[in-house]
Amino acid sequence: MKNIFWKNDEAVIYGKRITTKRKEAWYGDSDSSYSNTSKQTLPWAIELLELRKEIEEIIDIRFNSCLLDLYNNSNGGV
Fold first, then answer.
1. What is the count of structural domains for the chain?
2. Do the beta carbons of residue 78 and residue 60 sit within 8 Å?
3. Alpha carbon of 3 to those of 6, 8, 16, 48: distances in Å?
4. Spatial separation of the C-alpha atoms in residues 24 and 27, rounded to whole Å
């Protein structure tokens, strides 16, 4: 997964905007939102498209996005 575009996420916790310690990458068919926050997805990376296809064939469910989290150590939470 050398071609994953990692970045630190931002979140609002108790009204305060913070930058998370962990890095994330969100790939998908279209932008998404949760908890009143809109997120822009990246176009699917080739490795993820291949993995998506394999998993979808096995479980017969279609995925429209994939959220990846990268923790550098056990202290990498929010």
1. 1
2. no
3. 9, 16, 32, 10
4. 10
**β-strand partners of 18:** 11
Domain span including residue 66: 7-70
Helix (H, G, I), strand (E, B) or coil at 5: coil
Residue 76, domain member (yes or no): no
Q: Is residue 21 part of a domain?
A: yes
Residue among 74, 75, 62, 67 nearest 4 (CA):
67
The 10s digit of each residue's pLDDT in 10-49 is 888 898 999 988 899 999 998 777 666 777 889 999 999 9
More confident call, 50 vs 30 = 50
